[in-house]
Amino acid sequence: MEKVPDSDFTNNELVLAALGYAQLGWPVFPLHTPRVNGDRPCSCDDPKCANAGKHSRIRQWPEKATTDPDQIRALWRKWPDSNIGIVTGHRSRLLIVDVDGQEGAVSIAGLEHQHGSLPNTRTVKTGGGGLHYYFVLPEDVEIRNSAGELAPGVDIRSSGGCAVAPPSLHKNGKRYVLQESSIDPAPCPDWLLELLKSLETIATWEEMFVRCPIRKIWEASCHQFRTSNHAYYHPLFDLWWRT
Ligand SMILES: [Zn+2]
Q1: Inter-residue contact 42 to 109 (CB < 8 Å)
Q2: Full 3-state SS string of 27-77
Q3: What's the pLDDT at 181?
Q4: How many other C-beta atoms lie within 10 A of the C-beta of residue 118?
Q5: Average pLDDT of 50-59?
């Protein structure tokens, strides 16, 4: 397991970075630490941990994440090599576009071609080789977390989500690095907000449909009137249902 850069806690780069994020108003919480050369991939000790160094050490992190310096020092004193999670969404007003690999890069290029370039903003190179673009959400807008819904290889870290922040360690041994330190997060571009809001509407309708009890009754009754492999007829509603 990699050592913390300095054994002296006051020079612990992780806690210093966490305190810096808190000063910007971004609530932070400790994440587990990947074990780069260990037989177990993560400090959670699960030999099959699929999320090494990316999941919380504390319960209820969306609420317990904090901007209080004393609490932050106490958390990192307990686990000095913890990776850093920043809460996204309404608590920090941050929306982070997480672009993963070649697939994500192609998706972003396509979106920029269609809607215009993303503005210069705070950008982090992830330990896994992806990019995190930090944007500020308008006060009255809430966008939910989503994975791959906007475009393949592009995740949105917003309400209900978090992002691993520099100088956290990736399981491959690389650290998350701030790309353009002088640039504050830019306001989230309008076109991106509009696209994400439209996803929101679709998701809500889908959710209603999935949860709707009438649909379950409908499907169950359709089943009885199944006439072929791919179509049902419901005599009560005089309707065909295709699958
Ligand atoms: Zn783990």
Answers
A1: no
A2: CEEEECCECCCCCCCECCCCCCCCCCCCCECCCCHHHHCECCHHHHHHHHH
A3: 65
A4: 19
A5: 96
**What would the pLDDT profile of 101-148 be if each residue is shown by its tens digit?**
999 999 999 999 999 999 999 999 999 999 999 999 999 899 989 899
Q: Is the pLDDT of residue 243 over 50?
A: no
pLDDT band at residue 37 under the 50/70/90 scheme: confident
Distance CA 175, CA 178 (A): 10
Q: Compute, in angstroms, the gap from residue 84 CA to the centroid of ligand 1.
A: 14
Distance 59 CA to ligand 1 centre (A): 14
Distance of CA 51 from the midpoint of ligand 1 (Å): 6
Protein residues placing their CB within 5 Å of the ion ligand 1: 32, 42, 44, 49
More confident residue, 218 or 150: 150
Tell me which long-range contacts 173-179 makes (C-beta under 8 A, separation of at least 24).
Answer: 173/2, 173/36, 173/127, 174/127, 174/128, 174/129, 175/127, 176/124, 176/125, 176/126, 176/127, 176/132, 177/124, 177/125, 178/122, 178/123, 178/124, 179/123, 179/124, 179/125, 179/131
Q: Are 52 and 171 in contact (CB under 8 A)?
A: yes
Phi, psi (rounded to 5 degrees) for 122: -60, 125
**Per-residue pLDDT, 229:** 46
Cα(82)–Cα(65) distance, integer angstroms = 14
The residue among 79, 72, 83 whose CA lies nearest residue 14 is 83
57 CA from centroid of ligand 1 (Å): 9
